[in-house]
Amino acid sequence: MTLWQSSAELGPDQGLLQFTGSLELDSRLFKYDIEGSVAWAEALEKAGIYNSDELQTVTQTLREIELDIERGQLQLDPQLEDIHMNIEAQLTSRLPDLGPRLHTGRSRNDQVLVDVKLYLRDQLAELKQELRQLLQAFVDRAAGEQRTVLPGFTHLQPAQPVTLAHYLMAFFEKFRRDYQRLDRGNQGLKTLPLGSGALAGSGYSIDREFLARRLGFAEPSRNSLDTVSERDFIFDLLHGLTVLALHASRLSEDWIIWSSPTFGFCRLEDSFTTGSSIMPQKKNPDILELIRGQAGRLLAAYQGLGSLLKAQPLAYNRDLQEDKFYLFIALDTVRSWLPLLARLVSSVRFNRDTMAAAAGKNFLAATDLADYLTERGVEFRRAHNIVRQLVELARKTDRKLEQLTTEELTAASSLLGDEVRQLLQPQASLERREIIGGTGPRVVQQAVERATDWLNEVES
Ligand code: ARG
After folding, report:
1. CATH classification of 18-104, choosing from 1.10.275.10, 1.20.1050.10, 3.10.20.340, 3.30.260.10?
2. Which of 19, 52, 71, 366 has a 20 to 30 A CA-CA distance from 62?
3. CA 3 to ligand 1 center in whole angstroms
4. Residue 112: CB within 6 Å of ligand 1?
5. What is the pTM of this model?
6. By three-state DSSP, how is residue 353 classified?
7. Which residues contact 196 (CB under 8 A, 6 or more apart)?
């Protein structure tokens, strides 16, 4: 029998209770449910429902229940539907007179929201800490790779030389935006849902300003119908987590390719690879593959929450219980790999020689050669054409651009001669790009320094 049933009624079918119950989903909220209930009891005292001695007793008993759950000494009962009813039932069995008063003026519709918001506040703080570690790992690795050259790609075809530091800082920027997005996504966590009641606002003179301060919210929510029906704050968080997961998935994809012996740009630490049950030589990048694959979970969760909310009539509907299914799978997924990813970034070994050799092949300096002509008065389109023909010639005869003879160069344009060979080195290409946001070694160095300052700032 559930708490809200009269003893005269028959208890609901066990199978139905199993279906409607949510304990499996919401038991992780127990601490926050207690925190909300302690504050609620204080608000009830102000409203004259408890006297101060009673409040003291209720608070102390709630804390005892919290400890018992924490220590695994209290078996939660799925027949009691959810975590809220479990805790209330415990309180009532320990305090038969005071327990039944706790839910005065409150609904599980506003209660569950305060629990989830308090839970997310803690989760976000931890998540941001983990994300800062990842950001730090990128900065640390970039600092050591200012001179390392590798081919940059477009369409996965070799395009122009970049430094490895520039590449690493690209991911720093992506994950920094994720950090800022998660920070901003916090806004919805600042309004207090408690006091909205089932949908129309609590029928008791509850001091919501007090409750907001007491539970660390900026202000009480402004419309009870909106409050119990909205899940924007979960949506905002899922959006942030999804973009973060997409970034992690792109990094994973790159390094899966890089670590393939065919590319050989990097080697993952052995602990980040797994062997094959049949092929003895294999070192597979399973961790990166799972991070890449699990980004799908985030996209699915985002879509799942959307389909849940679409076309629900105001205000609360039981569908909303499913919000936690999508929220927790998204959060748990990201938190399961985020610390691993930071360790992987810190420990990956880059093969500088292989990268440098790749950067010296495939005509990566072709654009620079066209620029050279353009600077000497040839229209860029025409210059592009001249260099394209030189590339064709070199490709056909299996040479690099700098291996073309002086006669061949001069035949293509009288402006070209021996002096361009120097220009065709990757280093020269990098040095031409000392522009804000470019791959020039000096600006990348500045980017690393600014990133370090930024990290120090957000850390404090
Ligand atoms: N377990 C429910 C949820 O997560 C709590 C609210 C239930 N409210 C109700 N009226 N049945 O949303």
Report:
1. 1.10.275.10
2. 19
3. 14
4. yes
5. 0.94
6. helix
7. 107, 109, 110, 113, 202, 221, 224, 227, 228
Amino acid at 379: E
User: Among residues 307, 184, 308, which one has the least CA distance to residue 239?
Assistant: 184
Q: In the prediction, which pLDDT does 279 show?
A: 81
Burial profile 52-76: b = 16 or more Cβ within 10 angstroms, e = fewer: eebbebbbebbeebbeebeeeebeb
Tell me if the domain spanning 358-441 has CATH number 1.20.1250.20: no
Catalytic amino acids? 155, 276
pLDDT at 282: 80
Domains 18-104 and 358-441 belong to one CATH topology? no
Distances (CA, A) of 158 to 65, 283, 300, 355, 394: 62, 26, 33, 12, 16
- DSSP for 138-182 reads HHHHHHT-SS-EEEEEETTEEEEEEEHHHHHHHHHHHHHHHHHHH
Tokens of 391: 């590339």
Quick check: CB of 109 below 6 Å from ligand 1? yes
**Domain spans of the chain?**
18-104, 114-156+165-207+218-352, 358-441
Rounded (5°) CA angle 353-355-356:
65
Q: How far is the CA of 284 from the centre of ligand 1 (A)?
A: 45
Model pLDDT for residues 155-199, shown as the tens digit of each residue: 999 999 999 999 999 999 999 999 999 987 678 999 999 999 999
C-alpha distances out from residue 327 to 144, 302, 362, Å: 38, 9, 46
86 lines ligand 1 (CB under 6 A): no
Q: What angle do CA 315, 318, 323 make, to 5 degrees?
A: 95
